[in-house]
Design goal:
This protein has 267 residues and is an alpha/beta fold. The protein has a single domain, classed as Rossmann fold (3-Layer(aba) Sandwich). 46% of the residues lie in helices and 13% in strands. A seven-stranded parallel beta sheet has the order 3-2-1-4-5-6-7, with helices on both faces. The radius of gyration is 18 Å and the shape is globular. It starts with 5 loop residues before the first helix and ends with a helix.
Amino acid sequence: MGNLDLHGLFNLNDKVALVTGGSRGIGYMIAQGLLQAGAKVYITARTVDVCQQAADELSQYGPCEALPADINDVAARQEIAAHIASHDGRLDILVNNAGTAWGDSYENYSVEAFDKVLQLNVSTVFAMTRDFTPLLEAAGKKSDPASVINIGSMDGLHIPQVHGIGTYAYTASKAAVHHLTRHLAVELGPKHITINAIAPGFFRSKMTEKIFDNFGDKLESNSLLGRVGEPEDIAGLAIYLSSRAGAYVHGAVIPVDGGTVINHQHS
């Protein structure tokens, strides 16, 4: 075996990526990482001005374009796919990050809220992957496959210890994302497309802002590493999974939580 091309292993030069929910939080962190690794990145978000502002900020790291849309809508997904097809002809990396959560007491938790969470967090992840498979297949090679990264959650691996307010739909949806990832691996592998899920622990974002305000110290102590996630932690894994370095990782669910789930199970 000759020398390993370590720079090339993690290089995303000339690759094209789409990050849903890329205007903030983990999606923004991943988009920045992909850009700095050399990829061209499209980001989606429902709010036009927020999506465009994020793309403008991210453009300092590389070519980033806003494609504001409600990806729950089939016509919106088709429009994004047509745009990428006409400009690039392929898609090397799809990051299914867009998601939502709902918290309420067990007695008051509404079916409507449950359905809304499952729609975006699970059904739309499936629809995005299916609808963009032709563009991913156009990019994938046996030695350098295209990549789908689904963002699950450590809460899909354990039951969060929150008293009074339950996130029943969120935890169920993220567990479903993990299993959907494994199921889709059977479909996509022969097409030279890898698919994996990342199960993040706590990272600072708009979604977790109130949790950090109320339980910041506990979030750190619950991690076996004594800290919460930093942008480099999530961006680094996304780069790995979508680069030549991760070309043989397929159908995996990878926790990025500093050992929080293990600590929870142990306590």
